[in-house]
Amino acid sequence: MSTDPHGWRVELDRQWDCFLTRYSSPTYPSSLPRSARALWTRTTAGIDGRILVSHPSVPWDQIRTTEGWAGFQHVNMLRGWLTVHPPRSACIPEDDRADLDPFLRVKLLRGAFFTILPSPTSTERKEHIPQWHIGNVYAMSRAPVQLVKLPASPRGNMGEGGTKYEVIICGAYEIRLFGDPSSYKSPYPILDVALSVELEFPSAPLRSLGPLSHGPPTLPLQHSPEHSITPHFVGGKPFGEAIGIGLRSTDSGGWWTVTDVRLSTNSSTNFIILTLLEPIRIAPTQTRIVPFRITLADNEYISEKVTKLVVELTCSPSAHIVRPSEATHVKNVVLSVTIPLDHVCLWTQDNYTPIRATYFFARSMVTAFTLVPPKLPFARPDYDACAGREFECTGNEPILALHGAGVDILSQPWWANSLPRQKHGWIVMSQGRTEWGLDWHGPSAADAFSSVTALSHILFHGPLEWRKWGFNANTRVVLVGHSNGGQGAWYIAARWPDRVCGVIAAAGYIKSQAYVPWSLDRFSHFVDPFLRAVLETSLTPDDNDLFLSNLVGTPILALHGGADDNVPTWHTRELVVVLKTWDRDAEITYYEDSGRPHWYPEIFKSDRVRAFLDRLYSPSPVPPLRRISDGIPASARRQGRFTLTVAVPHESGSMYGWRVCALSTPGLMMRYLESKEPYCLQGTDHHQILPEQNTDPVTLQPRQRLQAILSSTAPLTLLIPSFSLQYELSAALRISYALRLYHSLDAQIISLEELNSLTDVGEGNLVVLGCGRESLVQAWLEQTRSAWRFKDGAWCFSERRKFNGPSLAIMFLQPHPTIPAATSLFLEFTDLNGLERALRLFPIRTGVLSPDWIVVGGRADEVGAAGVEGAGVYARSCHGDWAYNGQVSWFD
User: Fold this and answer.
1) Which residues form the Peptidase S9 prolyl oligopeptidase catalytic domain (predicted)?
2) Sign of CA dihedral 37, 38, 40, 46
């Protein structure tokens, strides 16, 4: 029970109903129980909100014998109750209730989705459309505050019983998340979720703020310390220019923009310059990080005695969004925030502290990463000579270390301590956006490479004593990874082979579909095989085994514990065998450490790891590090050829200087064979392949899967028709929350009403939410010769099919209206149930079957992907448009 100081109470019932299902229909048939039917059972939550759900009567051993881990994966639907008790003084006129009702502050750990419903006996329940909120399924540590509006006002029931609401939780038992039951000594799988609910009231109305105000917690914006980011100060200098202050809105209806940042008056820090990168507008209940740059003159240093900075943020209400009744009363407010400063000493050969550095990812997203400095400088690069062009170093290439799932590199020092400090090479530990990120794909891979580039710039622009430790910003790297990071090492090395000079991959899995097979997916019993093939093209870019031809010339050390109960040891063995199939002489060494578990502290500190790194870094007449200038490797020269495998051009780099820029049939995987004959290129399809230095863009190519929306070069923009449309605004806020939670990606919310033209939508990727019927957007689709049109009350695709049935989610990619490198994702729907379906299909996690365009109907609730009514990958027309692709499209 949670009690508010004003007398409000919220009580969460500890009794939960649950049933076992495999995405079953409302009649609850299930293949897991012996009766082939799921029945409601009951469990009791702990006082801490922890809910354990198991089904001992299911013959799990029998299922495991034939189906393995796939047989353990299932879904539980949980039903519980919460009651809100308002104080008797809360009785106010009906028309004023909406803005004054409290929010529910909800934390759902290890659960996929939840919704709050009015009581089944209430009048509101009859017309209510459930709004599904994403859970913190990975239990990540820096989750934003999640505020949920009550579906009905609690003020109508002032009695002792309060107002009752129904809570529905979708809890999926995933092996990646919970593991093999034997790992926690159970004969059956146990779903372990936790739910807590508190009340939070919106800030006071704007008119109560009066003139310029300072400080108290009733301000419409509050500091969110867990989202603030600062670099370490090394010898009095910031190790990175980026600082971020986390803010969240407590205003239920007001929109606020941070317009200025400055230090409070202090003589000891008046030489510090803070510069706001760009104004940051924060929507009601949204959390954003305010980015600003810290600058010190060359001869200025911050004393170790200065352990904090007091920063004042000027916040202005957005005039065009303010409620009319309050417009004349609104004033700026100033929020004072204290930022702690962490000082570390300059590293030496014998002593060091892991360093936290920062940079601006995707133009303005403040991002931190961790570093282990080398023992000795390699050589002082001639920065003046190499500025603006490639500068090649040999022997001090940094190690790019990719952590496993759930590892927080900023608060868990063991990851940095497990890596052997190098003589000349930096160890760069990127976050990959968050503890899980996108499995080191997409924005996670971009963060990894960007962290290396950022370190080069920090050393180059830092004090003179830092510069001798520098390296070229375009350097190759040695990839090291464990578990999910081991998989990421295979992934990154095989997609950008020219950027990698060696790989140490430990306990990595091949791909998600092999980690836990999809053999028991419910939709496989109903889906058209061709539709399944079209949908699975969206997974092809992640299938590491298909791209191993690109690693034939890369030195690799593959490691795995022989008693690993998390990632099966055969995954690494299989990767080795596939690579050896491409070339028996491939430079790969495999070592299986008998009897060792998934993780053991010395896995990267063994003699074999040191010997591998020494071989990579040691100078020799023929440098062991592969470079473009080396040309084709020895193994390829012996064969007279090499094979470059590509699925999505914009998600792949070059190999030996050659890069695939376009595919004539997007959606089909391409392999290109270069013969020893000059310019003799053979492939499985027509293509455009060019030397890396050629600047022909790949940006106009179709992206091939909706997941591309996550790879943005600037903060995303969420576009809705009007701020007065509460369902669309709620949807945008939920997408913004998911982007922040899972990928630490920033997003602004704007409306069509405030745009003069689509040139005002920003430079980042664009999510268009329910705007397709508006004239401005229709004109955009027409001008770009889009395959999609809205006419006669229905969405039409390429004049081939109309979609206007109930509960439809219609999702498709389009080129950005103004930025060639950016992408737009349309989320359209035929009714509010379709809107909720589109939100649940938003590709926030890996393994989502979603090509360039997809239409899903209500039948998907029973048969999964077999409820798709159309899906496909675009082709690129002769005019450069994204057009219908008959080879990789399907209609019901």
Assistant:
1) 471-599
2) positive
